[in-house]
Every structure is written in structure tokens, then in C-alpha cells.
Write a structure and sequence with these properties.
By secondary structure, the chain is of the alpha+beta class. The protein has one domain: Roll (Nuclear Transport Factor 2, Chain: A), CATH 3.10.450. The chain has 1 helix and 5 strands. It has one helix spanning 54-77; strands at residues 2-4, 11-16, 22-27, 31-39, 45-53. The chain has a 5-stranded antiparallel β-sheet with strand order 1-2-3-4-5. The longest helix has 24 residues, at 54-77. The protein is extended and about 50 Å long. The chain starts with a strand and ends in a 12-residue tail after the last helix.
């Protein structure tokens, strides 16, 4: 995998995934946009996009941590994984 990075606000990073796809990460003043470019079976270019504002990323990360904490509590109640470190922290 090759990376081309110069990270500042309003910048782009290109990642050649070396499987015919390129991931383009755009960092803007309000959020992050990620595009995946690839060729389909007919040689036509396909593009798929995910975008979220920074506040949405923070909400998503917080929700994931809460979900992991709930899974840990459930597993501890059922006697599972007591010997492992807290995966949510």
C-alpha cells in the first residue's frame, strides 16, 4: 500500500490500495470525505463516497465505545473474557 500525505485542513491524501482501487481522503474545515475509485468489469470508473462532519465522527466514536462497554458488561455477567483487558478503553 502506498500513501501520499500532506495533512492540513482542506487537503487530500491518495492511497493506492494496489488492487485496482484508490482511496481519496479529503479533509475539509467541517469534516472528512472519503472516495473509493475503481474500474468495474466493463472498464467503467466507479466511485463510492462516505462523508461525515467532525461532530458526526465524534458521535459515532462515542457510540462505538458505549456499545463496546455494553458488550463487556454483558460478557462479564456471563463469565466471559474476564482475563482480557477492557477493549473499549
Amino acid at each position: 500500500m502506498r500513501l501520499n500525505m500532506d495533512i492540513t485542513v482542506n487537503s487530500q491524501m491518495y492511497v493506492d490500495l494496489e488492487d485496482g482501487r484508490t482511496l481519496v481522503i479529503n479533509i475539509g474545515i467541517e469534516g472528512i470525505i472519503m472516495d473509493v475509485h475503481s474500474d468495474d468489469e466493463n472498464g467503467e470508473e466507479e466511485e463510492h463516497t462516505v462523508e461525515m462532519m467532525f461532530s458526526e465522527w465524534a458521535d459515532w466514536i462515542t457510540d462505538i465505545k458505549n456499545d463496546l462497554n455494553e458488550i463487556r458488561r454483558r460478557d462479564e455477567k456471563n463469565g466471559l473474557y474476564l482475563e482480557h483487558e477492557d477493549i473499549a478503553n
